[in-house]
Amino acid sequence: MKISEIRQLTTEELVRRLEDEQNNLVDLRFTHALKQLTNTAKLGDTKRTIARLMTELKLRNSKEAKSNG
């Protein structure tokens, strides 16, 4: 997921997507442990997506904190 796509999501959608991606990462790790994962690049892609989602959420929270005083 690109950062431009992430920035278009609402905060609720970001949180929901973050939970989905974290669950996806657990599934991928489990599949990898069983040696059934054929494309191991998915692990890195999912980790990067999670990092992007968390960064955008943190950015929004800091902006909200600054606007509240």
The total strand number stands at 0
Q: Describe the biggest sheet? A: none
Distance between the termini: 33 Å
- Structural class of the secondary elements? mainly alpha
Q: In DSSP terms, counting alpha (H) and pi (I) runs of 4 or more, how many helices?
A: 3
What is the average per-residue confidence, as pLDDT, rounded to a whole number? 95
Broad shape: elongated
Radius of gyration: 15 Å
Q: Helix amount, in percent?
A: over 70%
Order of H and E elements: HHH
Unreliable residue stretches: none
Query: In what range is the share of β-strand residues?
Result: under 5%
Describe the structure.
This protein is mainly α. Helices cover 81% and strands 0% of the residues. It has three helices and no strands. It has helices at residues 3-7, 11-33, 41-68. α2 (11-33) runs antiparallel to α3. The longest helix has 28 residues, at 41-68. It is elongated, with a radius of gyration of 15 Å. The N and C termini lie far apart (33 Å).
Sequence-ordered SSE layout with sheet pairings:
Blueprint: H1 3-7, H2 11-33, H3 41-68
Helix pairs in contact: 2-3
Question: Short summary of the structure?
Answer:
With 69 residues, the chain is mainly α. Helices cover 81% and strands 0% of the residues. The chain has helices at 3-7, 11-33, 41-68.
